[in-house]
Structure formats: structure tokens, C-alpha cells
Design brief:
Blueprint (H helix, E strand, L loop, with lengths): L3 E7 L2 E5 L4 E5 L3 H10 L5 E5 L7 H12 L3 E3 L4 H20 L10 H19 L7 E5 L6 H8 L4 E5 L7 H4 L5 H8 L4 E4 L2 H15 L3 E2 L2 E3 L4 E6 L6 H9 L1 H14 L3 E8 L6 H14 L7 E8 L6 H21 L7 E5 L4 H10 L2 E4 L8 H8 L7 E5 L12 E3 L4 H13 L2 H17 L2 H24 L1
The chain binds GDP-alpha-D-glucose.
């Protein structure tokens, strides 16, 4: 019987070490939910790093056995590997380059070597499990070389690859010293998926200009094989957000917050700490709103959640300081005894509280400089039972391709963003409902389960096509 193997940098369960014991904490992330129904099926497995360093072989054995019971296979990484492969090549070379922040990118040979070695380590872990007829679905920018490594060892396997971040223009990719190896690595797959057609077009162009392989209708001819490329915009577990937002607990939290805020209207902002998310620009735009429209002072507050992330990387620490300063400056200038312009939280919240904030907010600001998709935009939409509320969305988030009923803005245009906030705050209810209803029907239909099925169906199709071409 053929099986499906999911591979990603992190497992959908995080293992934490406390003083005397280990805890296994399942992730609530979108990917874990979407692929949950696949990897838990009999015989299937998810391969990835469990999130902690292990030196004791007995402990390694214990963790492996525990994870195995829930269809997971760990790849253990050392501290040096996390430093050079993860913080180094993945997050200091690929992440900035793929998000058009090349000024932040470093090009270290040692980081590249660690990246190759860790992709090889993942390859060995998958090969220990994979038979010749199996289907392997590899995820994201940390594992760009893995499809080709697997292909060499298992030529008959069905291999899919999905990139969760943008694929940038050829002009960005050509800067990377290891550009050809990275593209060749991805081309080991039978099917390569992106969030949008724009990213797919950039990929086809890079492959053609750097490797000389032509393509037609999303089908690349390499000297040895045909590779299909397509767009699969990722969705969320709509029902989960809808139900959680309607739960008694979410309503209770909302009532509590409402009481504390009195009549003040709420604009919401939720992100991981990342320079790609446009957090500082958003704060400046909120300041412009307060300057230009004094009537909103004491009437509107910005609730801003920033979830700690990658604070070992220098630019992230600097961004944190910039945000602290901006919030401090704006609050000290405009606050009154009874009103706080910005409520800023640097920590993560449980889902029920997140849902109550989605309920509470009249406006959501999702204004990244670049974002592969952005799931916060979709979660806000799913949480709006009464269909009131306005989404302000950056034209450079993948989600903007689908969510055209949002107010679409250019996140570097501070004036436009401030005007969009004003427009959202005065938007008639009828228009809000009209827009939100359209957004909801789209996000409900193209949920994460539809996304998974679409990709898996297309992957099986790509293999059948490959076999037909081979016998012709
Ligand atoms: C990458 C790509 C692409 C946030 N704060 C809390 C919390 N969150 C959850 C949100 C959302 C998730 O984190 C963030 O997902 P995004 O899609 O917005 O962004 P990335 O983490 O950068 O993800 C992105 C995604 O992959 C999928 O392909 O869309 O473009 O960069 O689900 O709700 N969750 C909880 N508490 C918080 O405080 N529980």
C-alpha cells in the first residue's frame, strides 16, 4: 500500500523540556490543521524537527517513540545546525531575499553548507521511511533542495513541493550565489505549488533565464522530466474560527474588553514580529490619522498584538526596539487620562482571546510589505458573524489576489493608509455587510481542506501524466 509522507522544518507538535519532564504541545497552526487528516491516516507520517535540542540518546529514543504513536518522525537538529541552517541560511539569506529585503540578506558559505547538510539529513530521514510508490509532500523555503535529493534516491516516488512565502522576481533570485542549485533542488518535484499566479510566473521566468528550461501552460520541460507548476492559494479552517468566535468564552472576553474600552472603537493589528509585516509603517499611518482627523482622538484605539519571533536574528531585535519607541512616542503625545491610543502586546494569546479580538474590532489592518498569503486576514473574516467590520489589506499580501472586497492599499503609502482607516471608520453598515458577505463566501469555500485536496489531487494527476509521457 502506498503512503503519504509530509515533510516540513517543524513538526506539528512541539516538544518542550521542563525541569523534570517533557511535554508534547500540538501546534494550532493552519498547516497542522489542514494536513491533520492526511498524516494521521493509517501508515502516513509527518517528518520534521520537534523544536528542542537533545543530547542524550535515551531521551532521543523516548521522544521518537512518543511521536511515532501520533504518526510523526523527528529529525533532531543540533544547536550549530539551527544557528547556521535555520537562523543563518533560511532566515538571514532566503527569507529576506524572497521578501524583497535584499539589504538584510547575508551570503555566508558556511550557512549554505549547513543548509545542504540539513536538507541531506531530512532526506535520509525520509528515505528511511519511504517506499518506491510513496507520495512525499515537502513544505517551504527551509527545504528547497530536498525534492531533488529525494528524486535521485527514489526516482519513482511522487514528490510535491509547496512554497509558503512569495517567490520573488528573477532580479532578486539572480543575486543569490546558489541560485541554480536552489532552483534545481525544487525541480526534483513532480508538482510545485505557490500561493499566487504571480509567484508562479516569477518562478517560471527564473527557471527559464537561469537554467534555460522553457515552459508552456505551467509545464516545465527539464532534460529528464516534466514538472508541473500551479497556484494553490492556502485557506483556513473556516468553521473553527467561526465556531470559536461564536463561543461563550469568546463572547465573555469580548464583553470584558468592551467594558474596559467603553465606547472607544477598535482597529486591530496581529502579526509575528517581522520586518516583512509593515508594523512600523502601520504605526506611522495611525499617527497620521490622529493628526489629520482630530475627531478620532479619544474615539478610536489601535490594539496591536506582536507575537515574538526569531529574536536571535539581529534585524528582529532592532525592529522590536523601533516598535517600542514608536508606540511610546505616539502614546505619550496623544494619550489622555481616560484614553490610550495604542494598546500594544508583545506576546501570544490563546485562540479564544484572539477570536474575541476579531469579534471586537471594527477594522483589521493587514498591511505587510510582502506576505506569501496572510492567514490573519482570512481569520478576521471568518470570525465576523454579524458581517460588520472592514478589512484593510496590503496589495502585496498574497491574500489580496482573492480578497478584492477588502480596502486594498499600498502599505508604503502612509497617507493612503491613514485615509483608508478613516474610510473604514465611516463606511456605512450596508456597504460593510455587502463586502463582508462576499469575502466570507470566498474564504468559507476555499478553506484549508479544499486547499489540501486540490494539491493532492493535482499531485496524483501530475504523476499519471509523467507516466503517460514516459510510455509514449
Ligand atoms: C507563513 C507566510 C502564509 C498570530 N498571533 C497569535 C496567533 N497567530 C496566528 C494567526 C495565524 C498565524 O499565527 C500567522 O499566519 P500568517 O499567514 O499571517 O503568517 P506567517 O506566520 O508569516 O506564515 C504567510 C503562511 O505561512 C501560510 O502559508 O500565509 O504569508 O509568511 O494563523 O492566527 N495565534 C494564537 N495567538 C496569537 O497571539 N493562538
Amino acid at each position: 500500500m502506498s503512503r503519504t509522507i509530509i515533510v516540513s522544518n517543524r513538526l506539528p507538535t512541539k516538544v518542550l523540556r521542563t525541569e523534570e519532564s517533557l511535554t508534547f504541545q500540538p501546534s494550532e497552526g493552519g498547516l497542522a490543521t489542514g494536513l491533520g487528516s492526511i498524516y494521521r491516516e493509517k501508515g502516513n507520517v509527518w517528518v520534521g524537527w520537534p523544536g528542542l535540542f537533545v543530547e542524550d540518546p535515551a531521551e532521543e529514543q523516548h521522544i521518537t517513540e512518543q511521536l511515532q504513536q501520533d504518526s510523526m518522525a523527528p529529525v533532531f537538529l543540533t544547536e550549530a545546525e539551527i544557528r547556521d541552517f535555520y537562523e543563518g541560511f533560511s532566515n538571514s539569506t532566503l527569507w529576506p531575499t524572497f521578501h524583497y529585503f535584499s539589504q538584510y540578506a547575508t551570503y555566508e558559505q558556511a550557512h549554505w553548507e549547513a543548509y545542504v547538510a540539513v536538507n541531506e539529513k531530512f532526506c535520509q530521514a525520509v528515505l528511511a521511511l519511504a517506499g518506491p510508490d510513496d507520495t512525499i509532500w515537502v513544505h517551504d523555503y527551509q527545504l528547497l533542495l530536498l525534492p531533488e535529493m529525494l528524486r535521485r534516491a527514489r526516482p519513482e516516488c511522487t514528490i510535491g513541493f509547496f512554497l509558503h512565502i512569495p517567490f520573488p522576481s528573477y532580479e532578486m533570485i539572480r543575486v543569490l550565489p546558489w541560485r541554480a542549485e536552489l532552483l534545481q533542488g525544487m525541480l526534483g518535484a513532480d508538482l510545485i505549488g505557490f500561493h499566487t499566479f504571480g509567484y508562479m510566473r516569477h518562478f517560471l521566468s527564473a527557471v527559464s533565464q537561469l537554467l534555460g528550461y522553457s515552459s508552456q501552460n505551467g509545464q516545465i520541460e527539464t532534460p529528464s522530466r516534466t514538472v508541473l507548476v500551479d497556484a494553490f492559494p492556502m485557506g483556513i479552517d473556516y468553521q473553527r474560527y467561526e465556531t470559536t468566535a461564536a463561543s461563550a468564552e469568546a463572547k465573555r472576553h469580548e464583553a470584558e474588553y468592551r467594558e474596559a474600552l467603553r465606547e472607544v472603537r477598535v482597529i486591530l493589528s496581529i502579526d509575528r514580529l517581522d520586518y516583512t509585516k509593515g508594523i512600523a509603517q502601520r504605526l506611522r499611518a495611525f499617527e497620521v490619522l490622529l493628526q489629520r482627523y482630530p475627531e478620532w482622538r479619544e474615539q478610536v484605539s489601535l490594539i496591536m498584538l506582536v507575537v515574538p519571533s526569531r529574536d536571535q536574528v539581529a534585524q528582529y531585535a532592532a525592529l522590536k526596539e523601533e516598535i517600542d519607541e514608536l508606540v511610546g512616542r505616539i502614546n505619550s503625545q496623544y494619550r489622555t487620562i481616560t484614553w490610550n491610543p495604542i494598546h500594544y502586546f508583545y506576546r501570544s494569546f490563546p485562540l479564544e482571546e484572539l477570536s474575541s479580538l476579531y469579534r471586537l474590532a471594527e477594522v483589521a489592518l493587514v498591511t505587510p510589505m510582502r506576505d506569501g498569503m496572510n492567514l490573519v486576514a482570512k481569520e478576521f473574516i471568518a470570525s465576523k458573524a454579524d458581517q460588520r467590520g472592514v478589512l484593510i489589506l496590503s496589495e502585496r499580501a498574497g491574500a489580496a489576489r482573492e480578497l478584492s472586497d477588502a480596502i486594498i492599499i499600498n502599505p508604503t503609502d502612509t497617507n493612503q493608509l491613514a485615509e483608508a482607516m478613516h474610510e473604514a471608520l465611516v463606511m456605512p453598515e450596508e456597504e460593510q455587510v455587502q463586502r463582508m458577505a462576499a469575502l466570507q463566501s470566498l474564504v468559507r469555500q476555499y478553506n484549508v481542506f479544499a486547499w489540501t485536496k486540490l494539491f493532492m489531487d493535482r499531485l496524483q494527476y501530475s504523476k499519471i501524466k509523467q507516466l503517460t509521457l514516459a510510455t509514449e
